[in-house]
Amino acid sequence: MTNRHETARQETATPDMPPPNAPAAIELRGISKAFGAVQANRDISIRVMPGTIHGIIGENGAGKSTLMSILYGFYKADSGEILIHGRETQIPDSQAAIRAGIGMVFQHFKLVQNFTVLENIILGAESGALLRPSKAKARTELARLAREYELDVNPDARIEDLSVGHQQRVEILKALYRQADILILDEPTGVLTPPEADHLFRILDHLRKQGKTVLLITHKLREIMEITDTVSVMRRGEMTATVQTAETTPEQLAELMVGRKVLLRVDKAPARPGRLVARIRDLRVTDEAGVERLKGIDLTLRAGEIVGIAGVAGNGQSELLEALGGFAKATGSITINDTPLDLGGQASAGRTRRAAGIAHVPEDRHRLGLILDFTAWENVALGYDDAPEYRRGPLMDNGAIIADTRGKMDRFDVRPPDPFLPARGFSGGNQQKIVLAREIERNPDLLLIGQPTRGVDIGAIEFIHKRIVELRDAGKAVLLVSVELDEIMSLSDRIAVMFDGRIMGERLPARTDERELGLLMAGVETEAAT
Amino acid sequence: MDYETLMQLLASTLRLGTPLLFACLAGLFSERAGIFDIGLEGKMLMAAMASGATAAITGSAWVGLSAGICAALVMALLHGLASITFRGNQLISGVALNFVASGATVLIAQALFQQGGRTPPLSGAARFGPIHLPWAAEIGAVPVIGPIYQQVLSGQSILVYAALACVPLSWWLLYATRFGLRLRAVGENPESVDTAGISVVRLRYMAVLVTGILCGLAGTYMATALQAGFGREMTAGRGYIALAALIFAKWRPWHALWATMLFGFLQALALRPDVIEGVAHVSIPVPALDALPYVLTVIVLAGFVGKAVGPRAGGQPYVKER
């Protein structure tokens, strides 16, 4: 890693003080943009040198995406100038951005699902009115790009049949096929598994070596430290700092992002596991296509202990949560406080689970945790609408629910603290806090929590982690599922690694490391270092 | 049923299937671009009235055709304005335009000709008459195949051949050209088109205009070839049947041909109760036969013919994400 930074610096001199005859690949001067009363970008100036990877880091809502949208012609800046390779450039639309050599890989891919890779590549960059010559040309070019950048994708595969990692490669190929020499990636690893992310970083490294300029937008400090040459920090629409990556630390960056000191490691006392809360025996789940997704899970959960489930997404973690949460049909047995649960997956299962003392913060809060068009207070009542304190005779006591929501918002620092705002209007972190408040404050014996900090900004992550540890210290059992290995390592008192529907092994965080867990996640048996 | 009757039935199928085929392809272009168009019916009706009236006044079927296409284009533009520019609800816009067409056609025809909302009967050059294909008589002598050429394919109006030609043409446009690629993309994921630097609005308008032209052909065929003049509500739900055929065809041109011809065959059958009586030895009341294509429409729309997944962005106005 250090090696790479050194070579990069040699090639580009110091980005802060470039040689006078080398124009920056991108230079922004005093860019401002307001949406109504909200100042999304305020007087932003940066210089990005060619052949470097420049990170832009900031919390959700800091204005990173707005800035990139201006650069890609989606919005017009209210004031300021854009210079590409030293020339002032107007970017009124995406076409102009493409002409200026800018390619963008969005967080949510802009691919036509039922088109082939080749069709997606040529869309909008066809060489003539007929497709046949365009396709032939693209095919040759793709083969070249694949060789040069480790960007292998079958040109005839349909997008919907490709993994997320491969779809992302198609997006990068699209940009390169349009001769982009500046590539913007918006939160590129949010949807990737760790090996896919590693592969992406290798691709970015190849791009840098070929002299391309990469702008990497992310809120993950680790990625910034791993791959970028320089990093700019954004906070509340302003660019607060631009520093050499080699000369900074994650702690410093976090502080710049949030505006205060942030605890990156979770501070917790050793666990004192108590009585058995849940016993899972030979749990199996078969999906609609008849594929066995859980192949016999045995697991125990104790009071006062956080058990973390590590694994690459799609290895049965979701099915485990669904079976425990009561919305997947399963076989085997689960006992909670010595009472067996019904595993038939009935519609009433959620209610009986809650009655048995299980609370669930689902992985996909948009699909399962919230109704985005409902207000915060309505979402707080979801699933607990028949609770006696929320009712007045046969009617709902809206006043009581709203009052309770205000309290929850206060205790969980939900911003803005407005019970009448639809869930859609909150940031990811605040949405998660609403779900968390609803579930935790019911004082459950067992909390199921999936991807607690997915799409959540760093300040909220700290808060959420603290709440999970507090729950543990209050003598509750917590089952944590996360694809973020860091999160598993720092929160869990015991780690179970899942691979292909099975638990590969259990480890104690103090007696294992990322390498060993990574091997288990890849399905390689290792001896427990006991 | 003898071979002769079968030939008559098939010729009739082709004649009756043609407006459905035009309308179905019209719907195909619109829906493939992500614009639902329930207003095929209204566009056909407008075109039928405009072409019937113009042909009656000028005495030329060709002038009638251009008037028909123009009328349908105006309707298509209105639908485009409502659903693309103003991002309105496409179903409501389509239904509204159908109502407008239903009333306006009769009103205009009555104002022009005072014949109870009809246009005067057309004859001669004011109609698209049958065209006899070369060597029809010679080839007709060939057993089995010959009569199909002579009696089914030959002797149809030029618009029938135009409709048949539209099938491979549409296929080629959709799958072999840049326009087709972009059109299909904008119906599946307009964002992909937008980020590629292509105007979603322009593409969708172009699709809607193609729809207008094809509906114009369908309506003109109704008034100047299939019948001799415009009559109140003469399209009789064909726009809706075409939509059902479109779903049946899963939004593909060649399948649209087979689907519309199946509906055309049912309509042809309804005109020949004697054939059914001869084959099945039961007498089915004519109204029941008339209802057959509509019954099939309901069956298709209710999803009994298997799951049909339309263009993913169908029916959604495109709003740039913030």
From TrEMBL, chain B:
Membrane-topology descriptor: Multi-pass membrane protein
Subcellular location: Cell membrane
A Gene Ontology molecular function term of the record: transmembrane transporter activity
Gene Ontology CC annotation, any one: plasma membrane
Broad class of where this protein is predominantly found: membrane
Membrane spanning stretches: 20-40, 52-79, 91-113, 158-175, 205-230, 251-271, 291-310
Alphabetic keyword roster: Cell membrane, Membrane, Transmembrane, Transmembrane helix
InterPro entries recorded: ABC_transp_permease
PANTHER family per record: GUANOSINE ABC TRANSPORTER PERMEASE PROTEIN NUPQ, SUGAR ABC TRANSPORTER INTEGRAL MEMBRANE PROTEIN-RELATED
Descriptive protein name: ABC transporter permease
Organism (species): Paenirhodobacter populi
